[in-house]
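Shipment paperwork, digital attachment
Item: protein structure file
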Amino acid sequence: MIDARVIYETEAEMNRLHAACRAAAARQRSNTVSRQEHRRAAEEFRNYQSPLWGLWSAQAQRDIVDSSGPWRDAAILYLQTSPRFFRSGYLRDVLCTRIKQAELQHKERKNIQEALLQSIVRRPSTGSFRYDCRLAIKVADSDFLQELRSLCGNRNPWISGRASRMEQAILRHAKPPSEIDI
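Attachment content:
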């Protein structure tokens, strides 16, 4: 079961292991012992296992698209917590793509909207912002657009620029009124 605790523990451990690798790499040219230390640190980093890695599996990704359940809940929670560790952004991008392909329930849609609004003000960001925009197109409604427009007026250019780009992506892909009325 993936919950916020698992995500935060994975983030902390991955950051610790990655820092140990970087520190050992900086010393590895000095002598044989340092090179062995670097190999040990790299091996420990590669061998780390987390329940979070289950989100990479083909089965989990199919389940995210096909049905509400633990994998989709874990994917949405991952977007909400937005952990920062080595390659966490790649996983976020994949999850955005899979969630975009799913038929979402109202509560899931609202949770995703909340996560996307948080991603606008978070600095530095995780993953590629374009995947957030693509997901926003799928989950947008009038309330979400209103929240985005209020962020467009923010004095911080980072926030207002990202909000504006997300709003433009949504409007660019909006269905024409004639398709909505049918």
